[in-house]
Design brief:
binds calcium ion, 9 helices, Arc Repressor Mutant, subunit A, four-stranded antiparallel sheet, elongated, Rossmann fold, alpha/beta, 14 strands, about 20% strand
């Protein structure tokens, strides 16, 4: 199973925020991080190793307007799905929220399962969009284009379909090891007759492409009967026991 995807909840109503965070994490699919103001949210987003897959954003924040905050995010190049939490007189809020670059909105009070359905829908769209851009070590990974860009060396690495899917799958696991069988099913599908040998061959080729020194893997590691992507180098190694194997 993949690790929970991080969601940033920006809401100044502490009780609502806590309930949201608690409920969102129940299914094990998401991990919630809370911010009570625009400033706090900005600080969380700017933290060095921060990564949020989606943002739930209240419109009325004590230190600003959620729509303005959203517009700011977009100007800063942040592309993850943003779902606005709007007040009762939603109509005008909604239009301005979407104008500011929000992907969707939901009016308070809302049902949690509806909110979750919208978050999932937006993540599905985003993950397959041209905008999906992930940082993997020294690379900028664009799954839709099957490309890894290395800005520091002005280099471009083209990936095959399967290589791109393997990378995407491992990235979603957020530094947790993914067992070979899970990865195999995730990339080739359940009914495939492909064996782990094929997977290993693909991993080998992928390492040749992305590892600065393929004999000493630092990004795509072998761990606990599977593989893990150390997208933020050092983080995964510190978080779990990594059994390096040839
Ligand atoms: Ca509010």
């Amino acid at each position: 199973m993949t690790a929970p995807r991080p969601i940033l909840i920006v809401e100044d109503d502490a009780a609502l925020r806590a309930t949201l965070a608690e409920q969102i994490m129940l299914a094990g699919e998401f991990r919630a991080v809370e911010a009570g103001s625009a400033a706090e949210a900005a600080a969380k987003l700017d933290a060095g190793d921060a990564r949020y897959d989606a943002i739930l954003l209240d419109i009325g924040l004590p230190d600003g307007d959620g729509r303005e905050f959203c517009a700011e995010l977009r100007r800063g190049g942040k592309r993850m799905p943003v779902i606005m939490l709007t007040g009762a007189d939603a109509e005008r809020d909604v239009v301005r929220g979407l104008d500011a670059g929000a992907n969707d909105y939901i009016a308070k009070p809302f049902r949690l399962d509806e909110l979750l359905a919208r978050v999932r829908a937006q993540l599905r769209v985003f993950d397959n969009s041209e905008d999906a851009v992930f940082t993997v070590g020294p690379y900028v990974f664009r799954p839709a284009a099957k490309l890894l860009l290395e800005p520091a060396r002005n280099r471009k690495i083209r990936l095959t379909d399967k290589e791109s899917n393997i990378l995407k799958f491992l990235y979603r696991a957020a530094g947790e090891p993914v067992p070979r069988q899970v990865l195999l099913h995730g990339v080739w599908g359940y009914n495939s007759s492909v064996t782990t040998h094929t997977l290993e061959t693909h991993i080998y080729r992928l390492r040749q492409k992305i590892e600065p020194d393929p004999s000493r893997t630092r990004l795509l590691l072998t761990a606990n009967g599977g593989y893990l992507l150390d997208a933020v180098p050092g983080q995964a190694a510190a978080a779990c026991q990594v059994a390096q194997r040839p």
